[in-house]
Design a protein that fits this description.
Radius of gyration: 31 Å
Largest sheet: 7 strands, mixed
Mean pLDDT: 69
Helix content: 40-55%
CATH superfamily of the largest domain: Vaccinia Virus protein VP39
Number of strands: 12
Strand order of the largest sheet: 6-5-1-7-8-12-11
CATH class of the largest domain: Alpha Beta
InterPro entries: Methyltransf_11, SAM-dependent_MTases_sf
Number of helices: 20
Strand content: 5-15%
Pfam family, one: Methyltransf_11
CATH topology of the largest domain: Rossmann fold
GO molecular function: S-adenosylmethionine-dependent methyltransferase activity
Low-confidence stretches: 1-7, 13-29, 31-41, 43-95, 251-283, 286-292, 304-330
Number of domains: 4
Protein name: Methyltransferase type 11 domain-containing protein
Length: 472
């Protein structure tokens, strides 16, 4: 919520842009604020209000109730309602701050803020996340008709990200969700590019267990597969990928020795090869070795891996013992990620759990894969932005080896939903169980596992969904 000084600035800006006569009601409200903030009075003295008028308002303010932010916002509402000249867009600060302030401090004023939010997106910044949040979470819910009218105006003038956001919200409000097959690539990428830095922190407290549950179901079925190939559709920041790493890496071996101040001069090996296991097989922890043997073993290990592993070797003091730690395991399979958001891809790469991460559309990525090349295809909370998942299931069955698995989650909608999927008020898609079953049968999948879950909590309410394991 804005503080009084911020609101005062907005009041002054609105008045400066207003040429209409101020009503008695407006003056009464103004008087209350002029009494506690001489700066506002000064601003009006420099405009059409005379000093005598200001003084009269001061007298009225003495008998007024205490000033609060809600009453000040009422002043903004009055000014907006009385303003009759909409031929020129308001100033940047005026449009943005009115749109953001009014619904937060005085919900009933939201309808009057819509034109200012529209002007800001149309004339200043069409990608402004705060304004789009107001349209999605305030205007669309409380003033759907006025919101639709404003969005239609925006749709005729915006391009790129702004148009993508506008079109997606219009599809929700105009009940066209059943005929909208998927969110546009532009919409998904722009939303998650902005969300990426705070994506994981926002999931805390939402009871979000989909990655863990999907990972458990995959590991239970693939742990005995030699050199598995796994594809993670819509991998995001790598929440599923980091849990699947044990399936594609050799068991970790650690070689540690007691020493003084070794942490500042340690050798870090980023990629271990089978030679590590052979060298340390007899005594992987090195606990029984004396100083000389331990140092010799470490030096031999470094020498053997210089040409094979990525090693950071700092100068080692002759009185210290080397320490090997933070080993990445030798790969025995592959894990490929793909995501539409370039910022999500960057974060996924920092976790070093994927063989590679592609910045691409999930369906396009699958189409580029060879027949019978993967053991598992995973889609954890990705289909909620795809709606029509027929292409994804079709390509998955082609890419999967015989006996492979498609593991995915969906948000549920009723079985009588016309097309089997629906764009929900949340902006996400839901699929029905009947729709998934129909597609599974069409592409010769067997329902290996179907599990009802709470996908997440939203405003304290459980969002119901389902996790599927389909086998080929």
């Amino acid at each position: 919520m804005a503080d009084f000084d911020q609101v005062s600035t907005i009041v002054s800006a609105i008045y400066a842009a207003t040429t209409v006569e101020i009503s008695i009601t407006s003056r009464r409200v103004l008087a209350r604020h002029a009494e506690i903030d001489p700066g506002i009075a000064t601003s009006f003295e420099q405009s059409s209000l005379t000093s005598a008028c200001i003084e009269k308002l001061r007298e009225q303010a003495v008998a007024s109730d205490s000033v609060d932010l809600a009453s000040l916002s009422l002043l903004l509402v009055i000014f907006v309602a009385e303003r009759d000249d909409r031929s020129a867009p308001p100033t940047t600060n005026t449009a943005f701050n009115i749109a953001a302030l009014l619904p937060s401090v005085l919900p009933a004023s939201g309808e009057l803020a819509i034109p200012f939010a529209r002007d800001h997106l149309q004339n200043v910044d069409s990608s402004d996340s705060t304004c789009w949040y107001l349209f999605t979470s305030v205007f669309a819910i409380s003033y759907p008709t006025q919101c639709i009218d404003a969005l239609k105006v925006l749709a005729s003038s915006l391009t790129g990200e702004g148009l993508a956001r506008c079109s997606h919200l219009l599809a929700i409000l105009t009940k066209q969700g059943e005929s909208t097959k998927k969110a546009s690539s532009t919409y998904v990428s722009c939303v998650f590019d902005k969300l990426a830095p705070v994506f994981e922190s926002r999931l805390k407290g939402l009871g979000y267990e989909v990655p863990k549950r999907v990972s458990d179901l995959v590991q239970h079925r693939v742990s005995i597969v030699s050199n598995p190939c796994i594809i993670d559709l819509g991998c995001g920041t790598g929440l599923v990928g980091e849990l699947l790493v044990p399936l594609i890496r050799e068991k970790s071996l650690t070689f540690s020795c007691l020493s003084a101040d070794y942490r500042d001069n340690a050798i870090k090996i980023n990629h271990l090869h089978n030679s590590i296991r052979e060298l340390l097989e007899a005594d992987p922890d090195g606990k029984d070795k004396d100083f000389a043997e331990a140092r010799l073993e470490n030096e031999k290990l470094v020498e053997r891996l210089l040409g094979e592993a990525k090693i950071m070797k700092e100068k080692i003091d002759s009185t210290q013992i080397l320490d090997m730690y933070d080993f990445d395991n030798a790969p025995r399979g592959s894990l490929f990620g793909v995501d539409l958001s370039k910022e999500m891809v960057k974060l996924a790469n920092t976790k070093h759990c994927y063989t590679s991460v592609a910045h691409a559309d999930c369906d396009d990525f699958l189409k580029a894969q060879a027949d019978s090349s993967a053991d598992v295809v995973v889609s954890a909370d990705t289909y909620i932005y795809m709606g029509d998942i027929e292409t994804s299931l079709k390509e998955s069955t082609r890419v999967l080896k015989q006996g492979g698995y498609l593991v995915f989650s969906v948000e549920l909608v009723p079985d009588d939903t016309r097309d089997g999927y629906l764009l929900l008020p949340s902006g996400r898609y839901g699929q029905s169980k009947a729709y998934v079953k129909r597609l599974a049968e069409k592409f010769a999948f067997e329902e290996d596992h179907v599990e009802d879950i709470v996908v997440r909590k939203e405003q304290g309410e459980d969002i119901l969904g389902c996790i599927y394991v389909l086998s080929k």
